[in-house]
Amino acid sequence: MERSRAPGAPLPPYEPLSEGLDIEGLPRSTMVVVEPSPMPPPRDHFAWSLCTMLYGNICCLGFMALVFSVKSRDRKVLRDYSGALSYGTTSKYLNITALLLNIFFVILIIALIASGTVVLANFIHQEQQQLFDGPT
């Protein structure tokens, strides 16, 4: 017993073809399988940690950031992405802290040098004034 269908409607794939209908007469369909793209592995911030250790190792934060970066890299090799993400995040925060401390200390040193220069210039100016004015 065949079901009635509307003329021109495509047949479902599980029904046999009707009499007088060939495979060329049916519309072509394409099946596309979409697989989710794999998650990229977490970042380990190794280069940043290496630069922090070499150029701004304040309170050994650069060294600790490098240690956590290497741990993150090891976890990536073992395909433990949650552990790699944890170590990588710790490394990133240590690098940020070391960077902020470096910036603070550079600004502090510049301010101290500038204020010391002003004080020294005033002292030299007073000494020259006393020398030219003579003893009173």
From TrEMBL:
This is IFM1 protein. Residues 1-20 are annotated as: Disordered. The chain crosses the membrane at residues 46-70, 99-124. The gene is Ifitm1. One of its GO terms (cellular component) is plasma membrane. Keywords: Membrane, Transmembrane, Transmembrane helix. One of its GO terms (biological process) is response to type II interferon. Pfam families: CD225. It comes from Eubucco bourcierii (red-headed barbet). Belongs to the CD225/Dispanin family. It comes from the Eukaryota. It is found in: Membrane. InterPro entries: CD225/Dispanin_fam (IPR007593), IFITM_antiviral_protein (IPR051517).
